Amino acid sequence: MSALLALSASIVSAHALAQSVQYASGKGIFDTKCAVCHQAGGKGQDGLAPPLTQLPGRYAGDAAGRRQLGLTVLNGMFGAITIKDKTYNFKMPSFASASDEELASVLNYVVFDLNAKHDKAKPFTAAEIKTLRAAPMDGAQVRENRAALIKSLGL
Ligand code: HEC
């Protein structure tokens, strides 16, 4: 009986955690535009779209990493990538049609709500996205840029 009580208490606290979202509007955008590929909570889909629960948090504390996150949502990304021995090779579309505010807010949801570690990162601002929007690149370049970043951060 006490085991059952302990179990139900942990279910209740997991539920409370799931509801305490810092970036609710970012979550709304994520659930509408991103979850179809990355799945709810950013857990990813094998062979299709990578999980977003570890690397974005690591990128966000670094200037080049922040730039990479912004470039990915603005321009999309194309070409195979490998995360933890799993390869993903599908096309991430560009979300340049979303506003700077929306993109900052969805990145904040990904970094701060979906990643346990975020290396003391500051929240994304619309101004940060606006600067990156001024210099579009193609999805293959975004992937090359990612490869260089992964190397320089030692990830
Ligand atoms: C049509 C499917 C699809 C949708 C929709 C999509 N993505 Fe992606 N995303 C991908 C794929 C595929 C990749 C990996 C691209 C590659 O293999 O080059 C990716 C990569 C990423 C990465 C880079 C991860 C890393 O480790 O560098 C981020 C960040 C990301 N997506 C965020 C988002 C966000 C935020 C949204 C919604 C605004 C979104 N994605 C919508 C398919 C999608």
TrEMBL record:
Which InterPro entries would you find in this protein's record?
Cyt_c-like_dom (IPR009056), Cyt_c-like_dom_sf (IPR036909), Cytochrome_c-type_DH (IPR051459)
A GO term, aspect molecular function: electron transfer activity
Listed A to Z, the keywords are: Heme, Iron, Metal-binding, Signal
Q: Name one Pfam family in it.
A: Cytochrom_C
Tell me the Gene3D superfamilies matching this sequence.
Answer: Cytochrome c-like domain
Q: List residues of the Cytochrome c domain.
A: 21-114
Q: Where is the signal peptide?
A: 1-18
Protein's recorded name: Cytochrome c-552
Species, as recorded: Paraburkholderia saeva
Source gene?
Answer: cycA
